[in-house]
Amino acid sequence: MGIDGIQLKEEGDEVKEKKEDEVIHLRRTIGLLPAISFIIGTVVGSGIFIAPKGVLMNSGSVGLSLVVWALCGVLSTFGALCYAELGTTFTKSGGHYTYLLETLGPLPAFLRLWAEFLFIRPAVASYVSLAFGRYVVDPFFSPCAPPTALIKLVSILGVTFVVAINCWSVTLASRTQITLTFIKMFALVLIIVPGITALARGQTENFQNGFEIDTLTLDKLPLAFYSGLYAYGGWFYLNFVTEEVINPNRNIPRAIIFSMVTVTVCYVLVNVAYYTMMTAEELLVSDAVAVTFANRALHGLASVIPVLVAVSCLGALNGGFFGAPRMLFVGAREGHWPVLFSMIHIRRNTPLPAILLLYPLVVVMVARGEIFQLINFASFSRWLFIAMATMGMLIHRYRFPLHPRPFKVPLTIAVTFTVVCFFIVGLSLYSDPWNTGGSCALTLSGIPVYYLTVHHSHLPTRWRKIFNYCSKQLQILLEVAQQEVQTY
Fold first, then answer.
1. φ, ψ for residue 349 (rounded to 5)?
2. Phi and psi of 83, rounded to 5°?
3. In the predicted model, is pLDDT for residue 193 greater than 50?
4. What is the DSSP code (8-state) at residue 350?
5. pLDDT tens digit string along 328-380?
């Protein structure tokens, strides 16, 4: 005991004697502007250019679809405010996983980790990358349909590019995100201005009888919200990298509030612009809504829109690959995932193994998946765990009223968001039992895995030795090591 204590003390002294740039750990490099760019750049991806079709299809009318877009923005802002409280209450990275672990316990946290990397993250990344591939390839084959194999190949190349950036440097990934965010905001402005200008001139015929709801059925309404909420998805990614945010108690709430208000206003205006220039029928038959809009409203710049949309998708993909691996990193650090994934590259200071694990999963799903089949499949578990996290926040408030909370969201907002999320999740099981049921089953499949490998390890000794040997060899090959200082 005494010898071990002396050894640990000597190791601690060695770390202290190292220069700051030599110590292996995730550094606080994300200020307010990168934080805002990170949220907006992740939220504004393929969704606003593809999801309008899903929202309109399931809401049944132009007017109701605009209401759905606005309510999705308000609901997402409510959720983002809840996560601002969670992010300043619990200073660890990891987002959903960390909050479930701290408020509801290890099993829900493990199931969130299991679902994230088994299908949620690969499905979301596949959806965005397939949209990227479609918008890159479409202009070269218009008006004919592009080959599906080529779309998937370009999608995989986009994923490879993003993975390479995030493996290489945190700073490079952050700067790339800022650049792509400014480009995608320019794309939104390019759509909003001509649409609102035409509306101001009296072009309102597409809004006549906008609330005819003859085709609306209540079982489809949750799917309309799923499509809208998917387009707003990403407001929680800053919480994945809390340990890398400069002054998180101040910058996380500010970045979240500014970003979500900006995105909500832009999304509603973009949809108004779409409906000003296109009828509901034209929007429903279009596979690339932004391109159809550009052909109507931006004759001289029509060829630029697919490029801007592709860049927008790339930015969302980059944000996802920047944030999501941090959840795996923290899960491995807590003992819920193999320890290899809690390691950092010794020179790049990036969570290399966690990023690389996602890559083959996304590539497989891109090769097999279809773009419109992925939203509902991923959304059920994602929103179930978000609702559980905010419910856990309320429980934590009740159990530990004196716990420091630098930012505290009003109780009404937290309760409203939690109840609505559970309602949407529950109703979606009725609306789309095949996809949501499959998502639920895959999530629950993590329960036996947890009890066999985490709660009480029942793996044979021989398997453990083989696993430890492979982990050691991978650690040497990837040049990774565990953090030498605590960052939370």
1. 55, 40
2. -75, -25
3. yes
4. S
5. 889 988 888 888 888 988 888 888 898 998 899 889 888 876 555 566 667 78
Q: Angle at Cα 112 formed by Cα 225 and Cα 244, nearest 5°?
A: 95
Is residue 19 within 8 Å of residue 291, measured between CB atoms? no
Q: Domain 26-482: give its CATH code.
A: 1.20.1740.10
pLDDT of 27-77, one tens digit each? 788 888 888 988 888 888 767 877 788 888 888 788 888 999 999 999 999
> For residue 366, what are its two tokens?
């891109």
Closest CA to 64 of 270, 166, 248, 216: 216
CA angle, 23 as apex, 102 and 106 as ends, to 5°?
Answer: 15
Stated pTM of the model: 0.84
Q: Which two tokens stand for residue 82?
A: 């809840």
- Identify the three-state secondary structure at position 460: coil
CB neighbours of residue 473 within 10 Å? 10
Within 278-372, residue ranges assigned H as helices are: 280-285, 289-297, 304-333, 352-368
Residues 6 or more apart from 202 whose CB is under 8 A from it? Answer: none
CA neighbours closer than 13 Å in the CB half-sphere of residue 59: 26
CB 48 within 8 A of CB 267: yes
CA-to-CA dists, residue 154 to 150, 180, 306, 361, 364, angstroms: 6, 18, 14, 16, 14
More confident: 398 or 30:
398
Q: Which residue's entry shows tokens 């794309």?
A: 187
In the chain, domain spans:
26-482
| Polymer length of the chain | 488
Burial label for 178, CB within 10 Å (0-12, 13-18, 19+), is: middle
In sequence order, what are the residues at sequence separation of 6 or more whose Cβ sits closer than 8 angstroms to the Cβ of residue 151? 130, 133, 134, 137
Please give the helix or strand (H or E) that residue 345 lies within, else none: strand 343-345
- 3-state class (DSSP) for residue 289: helix
Work out the angle at residue 418's Cα, subtended by the Cα atoms of residues 413 and 422, and round it to the nearest 5 degrees.
150
Lowest-pLDDT range of 41-55, 167-181, 184-198, 311-325: 41-55
Nearest CA among 70, 303, 321 for reference residue 180: 321
H helical segments located in 60-147? 62-89, 96-103, 106-115, 121-141
Whole-number Å distance between alpha carbons of 124 and 234: 10
Residue 482, beta-bridge partner list: 343
- Phi/psi region, residue 460 (left: phi>0; alpha: psi -120 to 50; beta: rest), is beta
CB 293 within 8 A of CB 9: no
**Distance between CA atoms of residues 448 and 139, nearest Å:** 48
Instruction: Name the amino acid, one letter, at 229.
Output: L
